Amino acid sequence: MIIAHAPSGYILATSIMRRIASAPVTAKAVVAAGIVGALAPDFDMVYFHFIDNRQTHHHKYISHWPIVWLTLAAASALWFSYARQSKAAALSLVLCLGGVLHVALDSFVGDIWWFAPFIDQPYAMFTVPARFKPWWLSFILHWSFAVELAICIWALLTYRGRSNPSLQARQP
Question: CA-CA distances (angstroms) from residue 144 to 67, 154, 161?
Fold first, then answer.
């Protein structure tokens, strides 16, 4: 995924707002947590570019290990189940679910080490052949980019539906 992580975090956050409605947290905070969580695994790009000098595939870093995000999400869900009035518990849960969503989406056409640190084997649903230079052109011209565009459109439609009072009246 190149452009769909932030929009996917928005979709995630808006879809679970009702489930965490018992927490005294604003919709803006939930959306922010969802978007930050969906971007968080890629914060390793600073290390990748400036310290590691692009020596290691950034999906091999701990920030992209599914076990980390799944464990954090489970711990946050447990915390929220015991402290439903806690803003921090609710936001932590949304943020961690965003991280899980990120690695799941990266698995679509990018290598993710699903069993790291126990097994050093990358997995991806589909492969994008390196046909063009620069590398990102291969991704943008691959059919899978249409999925990213669909996620972006879905997020835009969700946003428009939430911000348009006439559309909100029709929603259940």
Answer: 25, 16, 26
Whole-angstrom Cα distance, residue 1 to residue 139?
A: 9
pLDDT digits (tens, 9 = 90+) for 90-120: 999 999 999 999 999 999 999 999 999 999 9
SS (H, E, C) the chain: CCCCHHHHHHHHHHHHCHHHCCCCCCHHHHHHHHHHHHHHHHHHHHHHHHCCCCCCCHHHCHHHCHHHHHHHHHHHHHHHHHCCCCHHHHHHHHHHHHHHHHHHHHHHHCCECCCCCCCCCCECCCCCCCCCCCHHHHHHCCCCHHHHHHHHHHHHHHHHHHHCHHHHCCCC
Q: Is the pTM of this model over 0.85?
A: yes
Nearest to 97 by CA among 17, 1, 13: 13
